[in-house]
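HUMAN: Spend a minute on the protein record below and explain its fold to me.
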Amino acid sequence: MWFKNLQLYRLASPFPLALAQLEEQLGRVVFTRCGSQDKQSRGWVPPRGKLEKADKDAASAALPLVHSVGGQWLIAMATEHRLLPSSVVNQVAADRADELEAQQGFRPGRKQLRELKERVTEELLPRAFTRRSTTWLWLDPVNGWLAVDAASRGKADDALELLAKSLDDFPVKPIKTERSPTSAMADWLAAGEAPAGFTVDRDCELKAVSDEKSTVRYVRHALDTDEVQAQVRTHLEAGKLPTRLALTWGDRLSFVLTEKLEIKRLAHLDTKEEEANEANGANGDELFDAEFALMSGELQRFLPDLLEALGGEIRDGEGASAEAAAGATAAAKPASPTQAPAPATTADDDPPF
């Protein structure tokens, strides 16, 4: 049970809900399969259950909707989509329009075509295949962490939206740091050295802030050689900004940090504890609990170190740094790599690494 990605948020401290209250309120929006005319359905499922068995009402199942190990909570959102490509709807609607033209002697107008597409969608939707997926969320009510295992902000927003719909009170905020990830990564690359406790790995992406968005990527390439460091500094001086950088923390976790403070390609490097549990003959439930406890324990130590490397977290009521205050004016003129904001990207921009 290791997350591959982290979309990070800050919970209110102390967290206003006890475990039993969270369980009860999540039960208001349990997962049910798509109805005949539903394009999508979302709801909570037991984290220790199987999505294939989520056809049943989760509230009637024996497994809880919140899995708790050592005060750390794990919840799971199931999503089911009906796969009905617009190209299929358009093709069937076009065939029907041809038939209608032959009958009435003239081409259907826009209103008729729109109504025709709606009827075709209603007809085909119940027969469309469905696809299901699970999104995992880790909640640390003691230290105030919330992490969503999602590759994009959009998927994480879907989970937060469902949480807000389920809970009476759900105070959650994005995490803000004194230094932007772009600024910090630029300094690390320019200096050829990562902050204490971290090492630079072998992947990096730099992108220009111009309209062309010219991009340079190093994939599985040593970044600590004199040649590569000279190239990277040249790109930084030319105005390109780092948007992704692979790092290792304490020889225990490897990950890719993005300009949006997203953690991607998270991997656990020290597998001795996992191998020991398997060697001791732990069953499926015991392995699940051991891996979740190991992951949450590592993240509780890793995340504070990461925020410290970014200058520390900006809490409510604290003033922004000079870098943040200068953001508005910096965006209006060419700036140094440590000042300019990162260019906006979408999930479609994700490179292969």
Summary: The longest helix spans residues 284-309. The two ends are 22 Å apart (CA to CA). The chain is about 35% helix and 25% strand. Residues 51-60, 318-349 have pLDDT under 50 and may be disordered.
